[in-house]
Design brief:
The protein is built from 14 helices and 18 strands. By secondary structure, the protein is of the alpha+beta class.
């Protein structure tokens, strides 16, 4: 069944958005959003977040926090099938393809972005089509551009950033890649497509920013505009030069923000060069494809869920923290020795099983409207006997005992890094049974996070479930914020993951 959206939403959306970042600033000193280093958020996300995530809880840097706050704000966007105003014409929407889009849409988009050469050779740059491709591209960008140093992050659903922050700028300059179906823009676009987003910014032009030019070069749609940032953390007003682009019908759109027109040109040139210099991706093995096919997806979890991709530094940070937490625990001595001997990189607890595995796949972090986060990892072995041996070895090493012993230090390190000043204490750590065979284990941790200066407490429940089917094991890691344990979504995620694993590796798999 196709959802219904209003064609008029392209131009009407400006009536309900402040555009505090697309040019941004209300002129009263409150229009910008800032993060902890007094840098104002970039034009695109502040535009949407100011209006649609107003009820979210933010941390000191005014960005939605990970993991506690992000689960609150990420779901606040209007539902995609919300009823349009009565004076707008409803049209059928196909969320996965624009081949069925009404002719009026094509006319409106091409009217907003007529045929014109794309700036800086963007039309010849092959754009990434998934988060892995975006991460590889951002990694290939120069370490320094427009006077700032690169920082890659993924702090809200459907957005990857490569920021170039400088000491003399409060605005967040650099790049964004937006997965539109998984992003707040999905609530204001008639359909989550890059060409729609370009038309949106052209047709929503107002006094806070000025569209300079827009067009399409083949199937590459683009728009440039200039505005200002003002507000907390900004001394006066900062100019912001922005370009947004993407391929017609693509769910991915790209944004570059700079302090000057020349800086914007520098970013575009660097982007095109990085695309041209990307190494050819090696094809995945059959086992890697099967592991990826067994992962949970947003479709499995439901429409109210969103996701945030993992970055390479996430695993590196966990490895450093976990290794440090284990170092002084007598219960972890055998595990520490084994990790060193086997040269295991501990990117997650599942790596204690994965030393002899032949393939691995990881889901993004899924976030629900009710404050639950879910991650799913699948590892594959050559045969079921090797997997059973991995479980046996982990038991002999005292995997559960070590995990329980070091979890106080690990939790404090993780949450303390995410939320400076917060104290994390483990109230209970238990192993609970799963009726899914001998090679299945579930660990549960109940924690209390205490904010500094009397800021109050928050309960957190972490549930780690590992299930083996055939020659593959799947780990489901869940976090629930608020302290109350609702078993239904936890059990539902484990069931879905187990069913998906069985489809790929059960019996003959």
């Amino acid at each position: 069944m196709r959802a219904k959206r209003a064609l008029g939403g392209l131009s009407a959306a400006v009536l309900v958005l402040t555009f505090a970042g697309c040019g941004t600033g209300s002129g009263d000193g409150t229009g910008g959003t800032t993060d902890g280093d007094d840098r104002t958020s970039d034009p695109i996300d502040s535009t949407i977040a100011d209006d649609e995530a107003a009820a979210s809880t933010t941390d000191g840097d005014d960005r939605t926090s990970d993991p506690i706050d992000s689960t609150i704000a990420d779901s606040t966007a209007a539902p995609p099938d919300a009823a349009p105003p009565e004076d707008e014409v409803e049209v059928e929407v196909s969320p996965t393809s624009c081949s069925d889009a009404p002719d009026e849409w094509s006319e409106a988009i091409d009217g907003a972005a007529p045929a014109a050469p794309a700036p800086g050779g963007l039309a010849g740059a092959t754009l990434p089509t998934d988060s892995d491709g975006v991460i590889a591209l951002f990694d290939a960008l120069p370490d320094e551009l427009i006077g700032g140093a690169k920082t890659v992050s993924a702090w809200m659903p459907g957005v990857l950033e490569a920021d170039y922050l400088s000491a003399d700028r409060a605005s967040r300059d650099g790049f964004q890649a937006m997965d539109l179906p998984n992003n707040m823009m999905n609530s204001v676009l008639p359909e989550p497509r890059a060409d729609m987003m370009v038309a949106f910014f052209v047709l929503s032009d107002d006094d806070d920013y000025t569209v300079e030019a827009a067009g399409h070069d083949g199937d590459l749609y683009w728009v440039t505009f200039v505005g200002t940032n003002s507000g907390v953390g900004i001394d006066g007003v900062e100019e912001v030069y922005t370009i947004t682009w993407g391929t017609a019908c693509s769910p991915w759109a790209f944004v570059a923000v700079a302090p000057t027109e020349a800086g914007r040109d520098e970013l575009v040139a660097a982007f095109v060069a990085a695309v041209a210099n990307l190494p050819e991706q090696q094809p995945k093995s059959t086992d890697e494809l099967a592991a990826g096919a067994a992962l949970l997806t947003l479709d499995d979890l439901g429409a109210e869920w969103r996701s945030r991709p993992h970055l390479p530094q996430d695993g590196e940070a966990f490895s450093e923290l976990a290794t440090a937490a284990m170092a002084d625990e007598p219960a972890c001595a055998a595990t520490v020795e084994w990790i060193s001997r086997e040269d295991v990189t501990l990117n997650g607890l599942l790596d204690l099983l994965a030393a002899t595995s032949v393939a691995r796949a990881e889901s993004p972090t899924f976030m629900s409207a009710t404050g639950v986060e879910v991650e799913h990892t699948v590892i594959v072995f050559e045969n079921a006997e090797q997997l059973s041996e991995a479980f046996r070895s982990s038991r002999e090493l005292g995997w559960s005992t070590c995990t329980f012993a070091m979890y106080d230090d690990l939790a404090q390190a993780q949450y303390g890094a995410a939320f400076p000043g917060v104290t994390a204490s483990v109230d209970s750590a238990t192993e609970r049974p799963l009726d899914l065979g001998d090679d299945a284990v579930a660990l549960r941790f109940e924690l209390t996070l205490t904010a500094p200066d009397g800021g109050g407490d928050m309960g957190v429940v972490q549930d780690v479930s590992i299930v083996a089917i055939g020659r593959a094991a799947g780990a489901v890691v869940q976090q629930s914020f608020g302290g109350e344990i609702d078993e239904d979504p936890i059990d539902a995620a484990i069931t879905l993951a187990t069913e998906s694993l069985f489809e790929q590796f059960g019996e003959s798999g």
